[in-house]
């Protein structure tokens, strides 16, 4: 990484405030999208979860149908054995053989009855699962339609400001490159911890913008001298004087005007 040329405290403050102006405008653009990006993401996650449930139901229904096919094979095999045993009964030599074949026939008939019972149970389970699956698919379809609408709405908002946003992102990176890494890291940390996204603020009636705590006159003089980076002890924000705010705002308005 190329070494950043050392610059004065005043130049650092101006660079920081310029960066704040750009990032604040980016925040405004993204805030116009409101909760839409989160709504879109939540819908995508919900649909994905429901589709996995639907896949599970499909697999369970297939398994139940396979079980029914197996039981039908058992029934067909049992019926063929019954026919075979009945045919053999016509040619037995004694009662013992006849009774043995009769027991085999009874066993196969029980197999058929048990298989029929299991087929009905599987069929009931399939019916219940298919009903639930249909409800699930309807919900997925409705959510997909809603997602499509929300995506189109979001894409519409993005397309309106995409060119400006891309330009501002480039400018943000450009201005950030003028600031040393430690100071830039502090700026980003303060921004992250701020509900308004402000890390560098001017004074309004002697108090940092957005704060009710007045800065002592001596401290205000130090801020105006621009000899060191001064952090507000209450808000944790970097403080700059009104003159610098006005000068940089005018300058940046001409740079990022869209």
Report on this model:
With 258 residues, the protein is mainly α. The protein folds into two domains: 1-31 and 180-258, no CATH class; 33-162, Helix Hairpins (Orthogonal Bundle). It has six helices and four strands; from the N terminus they run ααααβββαβα. It has helices at 9-31, 36-89, 95-176, 181-193, 217-225, 242-255; strands spanning 200-201, 203-204, 207-208, 238-239. The protein has a two-stranded parallel sheet with strand order 1-4. Strands 2-3 form a two-stranded antiparallel sheet. β2 (203-204) and β3 (207-208) form a beta hairpin. α1 (9-31) packs across α3 (95-176) and α1 packs across α6 (242-255). The longest helix has 82 residues, at 95-176. The radius of gyration is 39 Å and the shape is rod-shaped. The model has no long low-confidence stretch (mean pLDDT 92).
């Amino acid at each position: 990484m190329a070494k950043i040329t050392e610059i004065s405290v005043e130049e650092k403050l101006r660079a920081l405030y310029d960066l704040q102006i750009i990032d604040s405008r980016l925040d405004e653009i993204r805030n116009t999208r409101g909760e839409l990006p989160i709504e879109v993401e939540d819908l995508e996650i919900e649909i994905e979860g429901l589709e996995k449930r639907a896949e599970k139901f499909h697999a369970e229904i297939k398994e139940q149908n396979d079980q029914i096919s197996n039981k039908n094979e058992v029934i067909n095999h049992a019926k063929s054995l019954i026919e075979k045993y009945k045919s053999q009964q016509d040619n037995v030599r004694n009662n013992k053989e006849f009774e043995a074949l009769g027991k085999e026939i009874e066993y196969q008939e029980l197999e058929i009855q048990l298989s029929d019972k299991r087929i009905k149970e599987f069929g009931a389970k399939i019916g219940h699962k298919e009903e639930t699956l249909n409800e699930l698919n309807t919900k997925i379809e409705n959510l997909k339609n809603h997602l499509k609408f929300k995506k189109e709405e979001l894409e519409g908002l993005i397309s309106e400001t995409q060119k400006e946003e891309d330009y501002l992102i480039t400018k943000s990176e450009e201005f950030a490159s003028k600031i040393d890494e430690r100071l830039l890291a502090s700026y980003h940390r303060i921004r992250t911890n701020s509900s308004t996204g402000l890390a560098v603020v001017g004074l309004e009636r002697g108090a940092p913008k957005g704060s009710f705590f007045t800065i002592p006159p001596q401290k205000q003089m130090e801020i105006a001298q621009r000899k060191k980076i001064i952090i507000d002890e209450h808000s944790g924000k970097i403080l700059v004087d009104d003159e610098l705010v006005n000068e940089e705002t005018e300058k940046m308005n001409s740079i990022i005007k869209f």
